[in-house]
Predict the structure.
Amino acid sequence: QSQELSQVRIDYHAALLALQEQGTRMVCTGKMHTDRVCRFDYLCYCTEAEEFVFFHSNASVMLPNLGPRRFQPALLDLSSVEDHNTQYFNFLELPAAALRYMPKPVFVPDVTLILNRFNADNLMHIFHDDLLPIFYTMQQYMDLDDEARLVFMEGWGEGAHFDLYRLLSSKQPLLKDHLRNFGKLMCFTKSYVGLSKMTTWYQYGFVQPQGPKANILVSGNEIRQFALFMMERLNITKDQRSEDDNYIVVFSRASTRLILNEAELILALAQEFKMRTVTVSLEDQPFDSIVRVISGASMLVSMHGAQLITSMFLPRGAAVIELFPFAVNPEQYTPYKTLASLPGMDLQYVAWRNTIEENSVAYPDRPWDQGGISHLDKEEQERILASKEVSRHLCCRNPEWLFRIYQDTVVDIPSFLEVLRESLKIKPNLKKTRPVSTVHPGRVREPKCQTSVQATNEAKLTVSWQIPWNLKYLKVREVKYEVWIQEQGENTYMPYILPHQNYTFSENIKPFTTYLVWVRCIFNKNLLGPFADVLICKT
Ligand code: UDP
């Protein structure tokens, strides 16, 4: 890996001529700034002005051509966090003729993905906001391959886990600060700007309290495929573990939000589950060795915190046990619960919370960003100390939240084990866990209805259909059909779940009435197919 740009030879004069004559070309996907990714030919960046530049010529293209709406509020989000006003992307415009009076451009020959990292010092943010979105944005565009160049424009140094970003392509990622080394005017021959938000599952509470995103578009399958890719790049092979080699991992934190009786907790876990129990921590081990251990574990136990993002490396069937300090409600801080619960992640999730205030050690005198409150006025400090639960709040500087979440905890072993016994319905078991099918039924075919009138107040409605086309190629544990019957003009309907391909309804069926009937197939209780075209049935 090298920071040099000259691995792909380009003809400088041809490139300069192309820039002067063609100018910049941009074509984007997405209707809104929040779902937009743009592809550019010859997007330039002026390192002195710290601005991207779009050069207009007769051959320039700018799609969407938003006019001044490009600034309302921006062309696109440069990070994967939705509509964050410090993460907007735009460019300045110049006529290509201005190039004559400007410093000679340096061309970047690689296909480049330009983005902002959101918080490169926090492992959860690194995975959720950067690595996953980068990985799947690269999958979306064929020329963002292993030779692609990543450019991080948020302006920070490498951060705590820069090596993880290096795994995504064979070229050294560039930081904003590096760009000056190349010259005053850099032009990216081919680049993509922005990130797909398709894989993110959590919002951090900038406009409403934090929680799962409203419309999650990713499943465990995509998370696991990404995790496998990362493991491959870290040279971790899924070793063939023996049946009885089940073990528990306690992920410990060494500086803040400590488990104060870790040894006791480890002993309790080992005894309760009759399993070897090991600890890992970011302070003690390189990241790849942590992933190696976690990828074979039956259970991961950890305080709430960024290190829990590594639960994506757990095998199917494993359990995630998240511990919360006193006065912190687990229901309100669920990035790891949401991850574990994604369909197809196949992880069991359990939260334990400390309800015994005396088992908690707080740090009122620390700096505010580590939960200190001594800078607040007396009244506010007293209110915080008296409160038994942090109420819902916005990100990111709520002192009560920071105070509580940075407490250390003595884990009360009896209550901890009780929660585990109650919640772990099935013993964490890896061998028996096969990925569950996610194949949905097709439409039922040839839906028909037949009606008959028995008497002035008695009628029958027979509905029949053929199995969905894809069913004959599948082994499905349970096939059921759902029929909705609505009397025309009414606004309610009756739903029925049926085991066979026809059924005669007589209850609630009136003579000389029109019914609308919908039929769909259901696999294994929760895989719903589409409804067939509505049937219009007159008795
Ligand atoms: N961290 C750590 N050990 C600690 C405290 C933090 O390894 O004792 C790591 C943590 O995993 C995260 C980063 O340092 O990647 C920032 O931690 P912070 O407490 O600010 O964030 P949180 O874990 O609450 O997301």
About this structure: The mean pLDDT is 95. The pocket of uridine-5'-diphosphate is lined by residues 122-124, 253-256, 282-283, 305-307 (CB under 6 Å). The longest helix spans residues 123-140. The chain has eleven helices and 28 strands.
